[in-house]
Amino acid sequence: MTYRRAAIPALAGGLLLTALLWWAGAGVNALHLQGTADVIGGRAAAELEHWLTPWSYDPPDSVRLGTAVLGGIGDTAVTDGSRYLALYETAMQIRFAAVFAFFVPGALLLLRRLPPVNGRMPVSLLAVWAWGMVAGTLAATLSAPWVIASHGRGSYRFLPQLAGMMSSGRQILVLAAFVAAVVTVLTARVTAKGAGELPRAAVPARAAHLAAAVGTAAVALSLVVLSYQPVAASIQRVSLSGRLMSEPGDFLRQWLLLGGWAGPAGTPVGHWLLYRAADVLLLAVVWCGLRWLPGMLTRATVPAMAAGAVCATVIGLLANQLWQMAVTGTDSGMRWGLVQLSGGLGGGVPAALTWGLVAGVLAALTLRLAGGGHAETDGSLAPAPPAVLPDPPATAPTALPDRPAG
User: Fold this and answer.
1) Are 212 and 172 a contacting pair, CB within 8 Å?
2) How far is residue 372's CA from residue 207's CA, in Å, rounded to a whole number?
3) pLDDT of residue 351 exceeding 50
């Protein structure tokens, strides 16, 4: 699929994702109406406000109250208050522009190498959905310094504040990214018509298995080793010199840890294993994604493998979180509503980006190293076209000797 054909759905999806997030942020004021709490409940309204505020152009109460206090002191304070409000407005402009800027190149690469034709429709949809969540998280991270500065305490515990804002608004981002992915993939399916045959790559089965194992091992390093409670506590206690770089523990945890677990101390083993099954599900999704990805791509390049591995890790995280939601809801007897149970959706995307890139690069290098020899291809992968051998040179038929008379 050419870049020209992939550009139209990528641009349409980027515009739709940006518009959906802006529309969601504009709906914060509706949660403050008197009848809203009566309809959906006060607790659910507060949760939804927490989800939507990071995408709202209206400054939060912390910025408003700070500027109001400054505004009562004098003319200089009034000027400072307007500057803080301007900083917040600039942060939101950067945030929405960054959503579009991050989504379009990633979607363009995915649609070019993973077009939604020839049985690739579900895989392409999941990949673009995951990339929409990555784009929103990167946009929130990029604009976070301006948001922090608008609160008037930019130099105070900067890294912990940045870590807290990196994944803000992730719950509504999951829904908006899914809608944008559906529109993007459906549009790409239309633009791909007439593009000619887009075959799958032929990948040796042994090389694909080895690449998937190496990439999954990189993800397991974060999920099993670094996320173990004593190791995670050591990462949390890392100390760096410098005022802005002090207390980097929360920041490192966001980028390095895909989960968190400890031994079954004080809990039934069966209950503990039920929660740990979510981690097994994550690794299974990553392994299957890396196993099938080389055969689904039109060309298994390093950028395409890296982007695909990031998307597979994000989808694995979502499966992990949905499993935990179901287990938690069963244990609590549905005392919590759906809004409260889904509060953990979309978390861990920065770590999925880090380890997905590592897993994708390692898998691509392993494919190149292991795919050089001849190996039998798996039936799930498209076989390579048979080599066309040149016809042998024409020679005159050799005369057979006469049979002697008996």
Assistant:
1) no
2) 9
3) yes
